Amino acid sequence: MDLQKLKEFAKDFTQTHYGVDFYIPLKLNGRLTTSLGRFVRTPTKSVQIELSKRLLQYYDEDEILGILKHELIHFALFELGKPHLDGEELFEQELVKHGAPRTKRIGHRGKIHVYQCNSCGKELYRARKFREKKYVTVCCKAKITYLGEKVI
């Protein structure tokens, strides 16, 4: 999917289901690593919706549209002056109604870094690479060894 198709989907979704015009920018953000999308706003106005570049690289179309729906529901409810935050009852009901995923319900996909505990051999997975000489494991308080990158 490309960004233009996502913008068209956003306009259609918010107008059809909420009667709200989608007028804010939809952007890709390469710095979003733990979240796949976010709705950016000030206390009084909507600013933009950002989607992770990783989302378009490693996830399928249904998952991409699910994340976008989640952010669009935030936007539409905010514009209508209704409860729009994660965990609020109306927001959660709208997610279920439209088949959008709840927060932190889609697992990580993409490039990860693999480390191994030098004592017990347990593997550790991290999104970012770090200097293994500075850290010890939680399991054994032992040093770790970097094994390499892996795509999941």
A few lines on this structure:
This protein is α+β, with helices and mostly antiparallel strands. The protein has helices spanning 3-18, 53-58, 61-79, 89-98; strands at 26-29, 37-41, 46-52, 111-117, 123-126, 144-151. The strands form two sheets. The chain has a three-stranded mixed β-sheet with strand order 1-3-2. A three-stranded antiparallel β-sheet has the order 5-4-6, with no helix packed on it.
Description:
Helix content is 34%, strand content 23%. The protein has four helices and six strands. The chain has helices at 3-18, 53-58, 61-79, 89-98; strands at residues 26-29, 37-41, 46-52, 111-117, 123-126, 144-151. Strands 1-3-2 form a three-stranded mixed beta sheet. Strand 4 and strand 5 form a beta hairpin. Helix 3 (61-79) packs antiparallel against helix 4 (89-98). The longest helix has 19 residues, at 61-79.
Give a topology summary:
Elements: H1 3-18, E1 26-29, E2 37-41, E3 46-52, H2 53-58, H3 61-79, H4 89-98, E4 111-117, E5 123-126, E6 144-151
Parallel strand pairs: 1-3
Antiparallel strand pairs: 2-3, 4-5, 4-6
Helix pairs in contact: 1-3, 3-4
